[in-house]
Amino acid sequence: MADPEAFRRVQQRLRSGAEEGLAGLKEFLRLPTISTLPEFAADLRRGAQWLAARMQAAGLEEVRLLETGGHPTVYGHWLHAPGRPTVLVYGHYDVQPADPLDLWTTPPFSPEVRDGRIYARGAADDKGQVWMHLQAVHALLETFGRLPCNLKFLVEGEEEVGSGGVIRLVAQERQRLAADLVVVSDTAFFAPGLPSLSLGLRGLCSLEVEVRGPTRDLHSGEYGGAVANPLHALAELVAGLHDARGRVTVPGFYDHVRPLRADERAAMAALPFDDAQWLAAVGLESGWGEEGFSSLERTWARPTLEINGMWGGFQGAGGKTVIAATAHAKITCRLVPDQQPRAVLRAVREHLQAHCPPGVHISVREGEGSPASLVSVESPMVTAAADALELAFGRRPVFVRTGGSIGVVPAFREALGAPVVLMGFGLPEDRIHAPDESLDLDNFRRGQEAIAAYWLGLG
Amino acid sequence: MADPEAFRRVQQRLRSGAEEGLAGLKEFLRLPTISTLPEFAADLRRGAQWLAARMQAAGLEEVRLLETGGHPTVYGHWLHAPGRPTVLVYGHYDVQPADPLDLWTTPPFSPEVRDGRIYARGAADDKGQVWMHLQAVHALLETFGRLPCNLKFLVEGEEEVGSGGVIRLVAQERQRLAADLVVVSDTAFFAPGLPSLSLGLRGLCSLEVEVRGPTRDLHSGEYGGAVANPLHALAELVAGLHDARGRVTVPGFYDHVRPLRADERAAMAALPFDDAQWLAAVGLESGWGEEGFSSLERTWARPTLEINGMWGGFQGAGGKTVIAATAHAKITCRLVPDQQPRAVLRAVREHLQAHCPPGVHISVREGEGSPASLVSVESPMVTAAADALELAFGRRPVFVRTGGSIGVVPAFREALGAPVVLMGFGLPEDRIHAPDESLDLDNFRRGQEAIAAYWLGLG
Fold it and tell me: What would the pLDDT profile of A328-348 be if each residue is shown by its tens digit?
């Protein structure tokens, strides 16, 4: 537990530097670091260089860009606390695409503060949270001239595209990255004012499907009724991926899914969660999913198969009476312990190939995958994080899980053997991955204090 | 039957003017008259004005643009043959969109002659065929100083978008358009060298479907598994529109379909048609469709329901792990006698609404519709057309049907009470509605002779 007097001092320092801290975050948010779109590659590199300069300015040493073949990873450390634990802080400076642009109140890369929130793509996911860590380091060094523990920062630029580069990097750089604990701040509180620690993440794997019919688009008057329509075939394939009970029909899909224990289900059920309200917030009157599970169980502890995009034929205004030559779908599966991504990808691919309707051909391309992760609520590193959150937010955190995926987390566990603590400061209303993403500024400020308290408590 | 000497004289005239005729066609084909795309509206009007000037130059009188609220219709006539029949010649100067542009060997609006064909969007559908009629009028007037019958020309600019304007116009202008016969040249020979008369056209009606889920795109990690995905729902709806026997599942869809008579099936079976070859020409190994019908029966005499376009979610490079807020589909049905478009549209809409999966909402917008048409092979106007084709091509034509639709044809039958003869000069390999559309130049030249022979035979 952090010494109360030391905590008070660093807290004051953070508060007096709050304005400057917010100005730095705005600069960070102005950089359009969209990792999935090739035309932004130069912006990613500029973003990495900007971040490296700010890490150096905060007091980190040996700051550098580590090349991964794609968008670079930014590394820096402070290692002058012999005998104290070493913490690896992970985050990402890349962001999701900003489309549809017309649904943003203000432009996605022109950060603006409104009603105690800062609006911009990446505000919560994950630039704001990376920035909190840098502010905490800076304040601790300014206050005490030293950090209470050893810190390594690893901030990557490919989180939103599967973290392929940094996953290889972590496997190659075990020495450089060796740590007693990995801390990730890329998750959210369960509710406003309710600090939370996430024990688990779902994994993720992706596929792309192409259904091919005729060699060219056909006139639907000349051929309609006598040839298979690739769009019908794709619809049939997609419709066949779930049954009436909301389960994925791919054979073997659930084979290695770890069942929820009764105590885990009870803990989830005890959380302050209003299903109807959660759905109403996104305009829905009813949920949908696997029979026999609550919404929290469905999103935290059950695997999914989702179509993220589907297209073919004429999409313009008016009409065009064609039978399209091809139809396309992008698929991702969210995975839970103990599913293996490659096995799931293979099962989905083989299922799609086996069910390809007559008259068309199918190609399925397997993408990247990462498994789920889950830590024990009894880990001392989890307890220390809970103490720090209580100190900064005045309330003991709840333990939750995260339905999303952070691709590199499984690599940390495998390569470094260190526990991963997910201490995130977003809120459910942050609209990450969507128009009008934002970050609550009260969480932004107290989050910096919680991080400082965590290091003081470990040191 | 045309007088052989008169036919020989106009034939010579057409042959000596062939080069000039082709140059005029090229000019016509350079105008990008894409009726479905709003940005080409001014090009449509320029196209109509250009055509009006050429009709006047050919010797037609009272040439003018008739306003329909959309792209104008061009009208002109020659009425100095009292006591002789009056023929209304119908065609269209608008064309389909040219995308995908990268699949054209030469640009779609830069006509080029290669190996006895002229390549351009609209070469066969339908500018080339409209131009044949003008060349025939011009040659007859130059040769004889008069036409052998009364002629009215009606060339519209909205055929590819359902002919809404000209359909209203035909109903309003019964007096001006009154005729003993309507001739449409917007169809094709059954095979190269095999002149054909088409007895029927399928009708057409269209719908647009929107499936709505959450009010915004959702993060598939946060919500995936617990909310309905609009793309899955759309796929389920589309997949449910056909059964395993290739039939449309919409209740009532086949209620008024006129069954094929045994003699009609025998006539279709007797045509020189190689199913495997027809499919192989567009890269297919097998057909697909309603059980118990041949490909010709499926495309000529059976109704269809086709998805012409379907889309939703992320379509870019890479991945985006979203659950899309909306999913979309464009649907058209090809209709046969005696289906009524409005009844079919209502049945499809109600079926889709009734089968909307839980957790999403659906909107279905009914578009335009036109019924199928069919004339008797025993009509004297059909016999006269067959005689003319035999004179110009040296071979008795076969009688076929057309799987496509010409929206205004039902209006002619209803408003004018005149038989409609479909005497078209395209070929199956013309690639209408697709990249590299072209017209056979031998058919282009002999077609002009056949048209002149038809008028001489009627006169």
Answer: 999 999 999 999 999 999 999
Residues 6+ apart with CB under 8 A from B421: B181, B182, B183, B184, B197, B375, B379, B381, B382, B385
Size of interface A-B (CB pairs under 8 A): 315
C-beta atoms of A232 and B242 within 8 A: yes
Q: What is the mean pLDDT of residues A435-456?
A: 98
Q: Range of A239's domain?
A: 203-257+303-370
Task: Please enumerate in sequence order all residues whose Cβ is within 8 A of that of A67, keeping only pairs 6 or more positions apart, or say none.
Answer: none
Substitution target in A186, A198, A229, A234 with the highest count of B β-carbons within 10 Å is: A229
| Whole-prediction pTM | 0.82
| Residue at a domain's end among A318, A348, A370 | A370
User: Nearest by CB to B220, which of A103, A225, A334?
Assistant: A334
Establish if B284 belongs to a structural domain.
Answer: no
pLDDT exceeds 80 at position A459: no
Do B358 and B430 share a structural domain? no
Nearest by CB to residue B221, choosing from A100, A367, A403, is: A403
Instruction: Give the tens place of pLDDT for each residue, A155-180.
Output: 999 999 888 899 999 999 999 999 99
Nearest CB to A224; choose among B310, B329, B403: B403
The three-state secondary structure class of A392 is helix
CA-CA-CA-CA torsion sign (B183, B185, B189, B195): positive
What number is the average pLDDT over the span B345-367?
A: 97
Residue B419: pLDDT band with limits 50, 70, 90: confident
Mean pLDDT, residues B256-261 taken together? 95
What's the pLDDT band for A378 if we cut at 50, 70, 90? confident
- The nearest CA of chain A is from the CA of B222 a distance in Å of 5
CATH of the domain at B226: 3.30.70.360
Per-residue pLDDT reduced to its tens digit, A55-67 = 999 999 999 999 9
Within a 10 A sphere around the Cβ of A316, how many other Cβ atoms?
13
Q: Are residues A170 and A216 in the same domain?
A: no
